[in-house]
Amino acid sequence: MSDKDEAMTTSETAAGATDTLAARPEGETLLRVSGLKKHFPVTKGLFKRQVGAVLAVDGLDFDVRAGETLGVVGESGCGKSTMGRLITRLLEPTAGTIEFQGKDITHLGTGDMRPLRRDVQMIFQDPYSSLNPRHTVGAIVGAPFRLQGVRPEGGVKQEVQRLLSVVGLSPEHYNRYPHEFSGGQRQRIGIARALALNPKLVVADEPVSALDVSIQAQVVNLLDDLQAELGLTYVIIAHDLSVIRHVSDRIAVMYLGKVVELTDRQSLYNKPMHPYTRALLSAVPVPDPRRKAAQGRDRILLQGDVPSPMNPPSGCRFHTRCWKATEVCAKKEPPLVALETGHQVACHHPENAADQEPGDTKLLTDLPPQATAEEPTPTTTKN
């Protein structure tokens, strides 16, 4: 069984989902992000003097086409969730631009953003903390209609009950409270609320990370079915590479506030170009021991912790943990460039491709200790 099939209930369902993804037409650009940054100030003392800043998101460039799913993966603390809150304008960006349907929404105020809330919605990571425990399901899912002044045909109650049916819940759940539901059912309530106003873009922040594996498959399949039925566009943030492989058309890999690789799903899993992406994929478990032995895949163990976003390394931010790092990696930040059709990578020495800096071949690990700051060498072990 493949990694992708792990997220599916049956192999037939997986095959059908693959056909759906392959058949999706390439739409026009719905969302465009350029140079997006978010720096959180760090203050100290009685007068709250700023002594630094957390560079949570530090220069993102990507776009999302109508009807597609963009998956975003990376280690904890790399800025994935902050990015999601920025593009939905739940946080104010420090710099950069966000364009939605060709309109600059980077610094729109609350009043100007209100009409756009119908088109951009978010599914939050924790399905319980994002639901008000004092409100019934009917009040929670019906809140977008009240806030936007929308009166659906047949009334709010009838529309809410229809939405509950769409996400696999019973209309009789209308008068129940969140604590009466399981984790998977609460996530479905959050999905129903996000879909209430027929949005064009849905940002899902770790939509299945808090759920059991069996429930994860149900919610993932639900998101896929809703996209096919309603023509939704997704930005799905996750750390589970199996889930991302199933739901995504294109995948962006983030490291320490930056996108280091962006390409279609098939290219990323079959031919990763950034060393960090290769290390992430090496950690994906293979459930079939015979297949694992046939692949002979080595597990890449990165030494050391992720550097602090308050003081990121110079040059390439991954060079302190990279086994291919050379002198140029410590001095010059690699740009995110297209090395192949549709395949973008920010690396001076990418995998399976010609180096951006072909003349620099001296590894940092080969330099004298005084010439570099303790550059750990990763080891490899067999899975």
Structure description:
This protein is α/β, with parallel strands linked by helices and 383 residues long. It has two domains: 3-40 and 52-269, P-loop containing nucleotide triphosphate hydrolases (Rossmann fold, 3-Layer(aba) Sandwich); 271-382, no CATH class. It has 13 helices and 14 strands. The protein has helices at residues 3-6, 11-23, 80-87, 110-113, 137-148, 156-166, 183-195, 213-230, 241-247, 265-270, 275-282, 289-295, 327-331; strands spanning 29-44, 49-65, 69-73, 95-100, 103-104, 120-123, 201-205, 233-237, 250-255, 258-264, 298-301, 337-340, 343-345, 379-382. An eight-stranded mixed beta sheet has the order 6-7-8-3-9-10-13-12, sandwiched between helices. Strands 2-1-4-5 form a four-stranded antiparallel beta sheet. The chain has a two-stranded antiparallel sheet with strand order 11-14. Helix 8 links the parallel strand 7 and strand 8. The model is unreliable at 1-25 and 371-383 (pLDDT under 50).
Profile the largest sheet: 8 strands, mixed
CATH class of the largest domain: Alpha Beta
Q: What is the ordering of alpha helices and beta strands?
A: HHEEEHEEHEHHHEHEHEEHHHEHEEE
Distance between the termini: 16 Å
Helical content stands at 25-40%
Determine Rg (CA atoms, Å). Answer: 22 Å
Write down how many β-strands occur, each being a DSSP E stretch of 2 or more residues.
14
Name of the CATH homologous superfamily of the largest domain:
P-loop containing nucleotide triphosphate hydrolases
Stretches where pLDDT falls below 50 for ≥5 residues? Answer: 1-25, 371-383
Give the strand content.
15-25%
